[in-house]
Amino acid sequence: MKEYFCIDFDDFNQMNHYSKGEFLKRYSMFLLALFLMAGGSSLLIRANIGCLPVSCPPYVLSCIPGQRLTFGTLIVILHLIFTLLQYLLLRKDFTIKNLLQIPVALVFGFFTDLTMWMTKSLQWDDSVEGYAMRVLQLIIGATIIGVGSSLQVRTRSLLLSGEGFVYAIAQVTKKEYGKIKIYCDIFWILLSLSFCFIFFGGWRFDMLGFGTLFSAFYVGLVVRFVSKHTPFVEKYFETEEEQVENEHSIPEVNTLPLVITIARMHGSGGHEIGLKVSEKLGIKFYDKEIINKTADTLGLSPKDVEEQEQNTSRADFLQYIITDNGISADKLTGRDGAIFLEQSKIIRQAAMESCVIIGRCADFVLKDRPCCLNVFVRSDEDFATKMVVSRTRLKENQAREIIRLKNRARANHYEKYTGMHWEDPSHYDIVVNTAKLGIETSVDLICNAVKVFFEMRS
């Protein structure tokens, strides 16, 4: 058994990570969520026009004449089966949290029987008014289930074993949870329909009716709506450590992560600013990584890519030859935009997560994204010269010359692939001058702009 069964005690450590107050707050809300889901499910059943798909099999079985097990008891049995199936599917990945679904099932079964007793008088006749009340009760019940489900997920505590079973299938099959959930709902309905024919001789509208299909789709809509429009719930469940971390965290907007692009003049400190911003916000940083990935894909050396990617003057490249007397620029042969196209692909892939991207026309590549903050970092030549001299072995006259050539090359590269002017401020959301603001102030300015950006969009 040891070969197949693994208890991950990190789950216990995570629970112990909460303070006493946080633990009580989180799990009291979890119990409330279970009660709401059980109560909503009972309201659906009392409407007698169908119930939630996952509740259909135990409910149909609970209605068999002479059968003494309550609906709540059958719910518990079903959830125990779900837990067993998770073990068979996950084996080594079966953790202590999966086992904790057993006491959760017992509580949920108790709440189910309790709310079935509380709602036993909420049943209506077959008149027009009666059916209107049934539909209203159906909507109210499904809404309550959706609210409860949203609260349960956002407590980040435990799952019902039915959800855990769906997650286990998704994990093993490498399929999307949403698709697996739909397939499982269809299976529960078909299984319940077979029970109807076996034990009742035919389809029962009161058990598998309009309410079953309606709740299957409507509950998901309620969960998404409640989650989207109640951001204060997430704040309520933050631990003390999370509150500190989230001072600089980036929330999701329109389901897209935030990407900060930084175009910069040579010697302005744009690379350092981008790195510090990424560290302060806790997101990824891309600069040389794009060069290395491009080189691997195209079969070039990183040095070749670095020399050619921005040293484009229309159809030409510039090669800088540093001498004691200064710098000369020799033209190399032209080439196609394979590097630009490959880097654009890498940039779009990187933008699947919140990150900072340095240069490479990233503002243009991601111009259609709503969650992209474009920054241009500039400085005067004296400031840039001091920066370059302090970090290289170049003399001052060499540094000034290479700054001019580098900036000219970047402008030409940008114009070639975008048809626009590199230094035009209309392309950017923020323009900072490090000669006047310095590195640290520029970093703070960008981070504060991120907060304002999300406050305006929330």
What does this structure look like?
The protein has 458 residues and is α/β, with parallel strands linked by helices. The protein has two domains: 10-245, no CATH class; 259-457, Rossmann fold (3-Layer(aba) Sandwich). Helix content is 62%, strand content 9%. It has helices spanning 10-16, 20-46, 56-62, 71-90, 96-99, 101-118, 128-154, 161-173, 177-200, 210-229, 231-236, 240-245, 270-281, 288-298, 302-309, 338-350, 362-365, 381-391, 396-418, 434-457, and strands at residues 259-264, 284-286, 312-313, 316-323, 326-332, 355-358, 372-378, 430-433. A five-stranded parallel sheet has the order 2-6-1-7-8. Strand 4 (316-323) and strand 5 form a beta hairpin. The longest helix is centred in the first third of the chain and has 27 residues, at 20-46. The model is unreliable at 1-17, 244-254 and 312-336 (pLDDT under 50).
